[in-house]
Amino acid sequence: MHIEVSGLNKSFGDFHAVRDVSFSIEKGHLIGLLGPSGGGKTSILRMLAGLETPSSGDIVFHGKRVNDLPPQERGIGFVFQNYALFKHMTVYDNVAFGLKIKKFSKSQIRDRVMELVELTGLKGFEHRYPHQLSGGQRQRVAFARALAPEPQLLLLDEPFAAIDAKIRQELRTWLKEMIERVGITSIFVTHDQDEAIEVADEIMIINKGRLEQKGSPWDIYKSPQTQFVASFIGESTIVEDVSKLKGFEEAAGWPGAQALIRPEFIEVGNPSEFRLQSATEQGKIKHVHFRGSEWMVEVEVGNVTLITYRSLEKEMLHPGDEVRVLVHRAYMFNQSDSWMMENR
Ligand code: ATP
């Protein structure tokens, strides 16, 4: 289902929780709503679902405005964080639930439930009750139940939040494959950037009720449009006066602009590691942390501490070492623009 949202607002009393949010979603895409707690993600999802009425704005599914349609008429399936399975019903009956409401025949129900049980890897578990399943299995039942009535849109609110780390990882991959296979337009809420990056075709970054940016995970990582997005996705250090760094002198013409530097924008090493030493800064190693596959190095340059990674093969650095630091790039932000500055 193609989705078009324009000028969506939601206020709870004096509190403006969702502010002028507009976006469109292509049929079959998997979208991650990502952002800090309280930003408005769940409110957006609930308005799409019809569980909350927008204060203003339009929600259009497949060319039709659905603002006034009740949830059950919107063709939506839900998966929530806390499973919300019926405890007194077996897996079979949980998955069959939506089909019974829609008055499918007994044989239609049987066929569809078995199809989904198979699709979600739950064959053999049909007669178990939720308490006889693991967290991951329960979430797969929730997914099968949501898909059973063949919704056009699947909404998932923090679907993995209650599941422990290892299973969560498996479920993410599983979910992505499953959604691709079914080909259903899906939107999931998360506050976990790794999860959004790994699973979503596109990410929408929501902060303080606003949509800060929408794009593929790679786009958002590579070209953040706001300072919030740059600091929320990936690691970075804020540098107040980047014009003091070699190669960035022209930033002095942009007063008030802040720079963000990602670990991969920097190289740190002994003087012999740099061909063009004149382009490098003097630095002093502050900390070196072992991260399994590489070192994380904190280095002081002037009055800022920059973070970078260093390959295990290279000569070891120690706190206190005098080193050279090459800054390749910086993201620059002022009130209305962002741009990438390169050290040439
Ligand atoms: P979280 O990740 O914590 O769920 P979120 O990004 O999903 O956060 P929302 O749950 O949409 O954010 O909430 C956005 C803001 O709106 C919050 O400050 C919340 O307290 C407020 N809010 C949400 N629902 C209501 C309500 N029914 N009445 C009053 N305020 C509400």
Write structural notes for this entry:
This protein has helices at residues 41-49, 91-101, 106-119, 135-147, 165-182, 193-199, 217-222, 227-232; strands at 3-12, 15-25, 30-34, 56-61, 64-65, 76-80, 153-157, 185-190, 202-207, 210-215, 237-239, 258-261, 266-269, 281-290, 294-301, 304-311, 322-327, 329-333, 338-342. A six-stranded mixed beta sheet has the order 6-7-8-3-9-10, with helices on both faces. It is an alpha+beta fold and 344 residues long. It has two domains: 3-230, Rossmann fold (3-Layer(aba) Sandwich); 237-342, Nucleic acid-binding proteins (OB fold (Dihydrolipoamide Acetyltransferase, E2P)), CATH 2.40.50.140. The radius of gyration is 25 Å and the shape is elongated. The chain is built from eight helices and 19 strands. The two termini are 47 Å apart. The longest helix is centred in the middle third of the chain and has 18 residues, at 165-182. Helices cover 24% and strands 33% of the residues. The mean pLDDT is 91. A hairpin with a 2-residue loop joins strand 1 and strand 2. Bound molecules: adenosine-5'-triphosphate (ATP). Adenosine-5'-triphosphate binds at residues 12, 15, 17, 35, 37-43, 191.
